[in-house]
Design goal:
Blueprint (H helix, E strand, L loop, with lengths): L1 E3 L2 H6 L6 E6 L5 H13 L2 E6 L9 H6 L4 H8 L6 E3 L3 H4 L19 H4 L3 H16 L3 E5 L3 H13 L5 E5 L2 E2 L15 H22 L4 H13 L4 E9 L13 E11 L2 E11 L20 E2 L12
Parallel strand pairs: 1-4, 2-3, 2-5, 3-4, 5-6
Antiparallel strand pairs: 7-11, 8-9, 9-10
């Protein structure tokens, strides 16, 4: 395994066969490693990028606080057969400072994560496009936990004719149901227990939908579940279209993602689950299991937003 820090080093690497990339900001956990394992099965060469992207942070203190653990990350990646870690400095990714030309996420900026974090998805899409251009992968792997991010990336790849397939790996959870996140390290024991309200709220919302209940009732049930834990400061609970990330009306029929964002103490957490509203077409894949506790950290058993090649 090689660790490179510059675009020049990355370009000089020999490439044979297919290449997969997994983009991360480091502080790796089992969720990231699930992406790497999927990449290893899919391609001849695996590149993992580790870069804390300043463009996607709204709060400078949050950027400063984000954990940087390159040595520990490398120790986790080497046994998985990663070929290259690309861990650049900010000046290498943005050599002229803040870029003049960026990618605009459009309407996705106006709802849920986009509305809660102005400019976030523009920063995400800008760095993803740069990293796709730098690494030139055949396939890129992303996690379903960041559902709206996945929708934004797929939209960009489609609209800008990027020749990379986007593949999505199900959310990985701890045994008690908490979605894995690099930010979980900031939670105290009590805050971690409080944070379980997120996955519980999604389970209850999904149950309503699976039993044929309306979307408005499902969201009300989720909000009520969250309200039982006063330490959880809810930012949003919503149901979104998995193709556009836009909110769905109560008469919507089809696949839907129920998403939640909240703060527990100073730590902001997100989670989501997908299911189907109304009759499911015979050819439609079954949605992933609800975010219930598992025996160990493991991905939900099925993709919740289906894999599709880019244009």
């Amino acid at each position: 395994m090689r660790i490179v820090h510059t675009a020049k080093e990355l370009r000089e690497l020999a490439t044979s066969g297919t290449r997969a990339v997994v983009m991360t900001m480091g502080a790796l956990h089992e969720g990231h490693l699930a992406l790497v394992r999927a990449a290893r099965e899919a391609a001849d060469q695996v590149v993992v990028t580790i870069f804390v992207n300043p463009l996607q942070f709204n709060d400078p203190a949050d950027l400063e606080r984000y954990p940087r653990t390159l040595d520990a990350d490398a120790a986790l990646l080497e046994p998985l057969g990663v070929d290259v870690i690309y861990a650049p400095e900010v000046d290498d990714v943005y050599p002229g400072g803040k870029p003049v030309v960026t990618v605009n996420a459009g309407a996705i900026n106006e709802v849920f994560e986009g509305a809660a974090r102005p400019g976030h998805f523009d920063g995400v899409l800008t760095v993803v496009l740069k990293l796709l251009n730098l690494t030139q992968p055949d396939v890129a792997f992303f996690g379903q936990k960041d559902a709206q991010q996945v929708i934004a990336i797929r939209s960009m790849v489609r609209d800008l004719n990027v020749r990379t397939t986007i593949s999505v790996v199900p959310t990985v959870r701890d045994a008690d149901g908490l979605a894995l996140s690099s930010r979980n390290v900031f939670l105290s024991d009590q805050q971690r227990a409080d944070a379980l309200a997120l996955s519980r709220s999604l389970t209850e919302a999904r149950q309503v939908l699976d039993e044929g209940g309306p979307i408005t009732l499902a969201l009300s049930v989720a909000r009520a579940a969250l309200a039982t834990v006063p330490a959880v400061d809810v930012e949003y609970v919503g149901a979104l279209n998995p193709a556009s990330a836009q909110p769905v009306p109560d008469d919507y029929r089809g696949e839907v993602v129920v998403a939640v964002a909240a703060r527990v103490g100073e730590t902001r957490l997100i989670d989501n689950t997908a299911t189907w509203v109304g009759p499911r077409p015979a050819a439609a894949p079954a949605p992933a299991a609800a975010p219930e506790p598992a025996a160990s950290a493991a991905p939900e058993p099925q993709h919740t937003i289906s894999k599709e090649p880019s244009a």
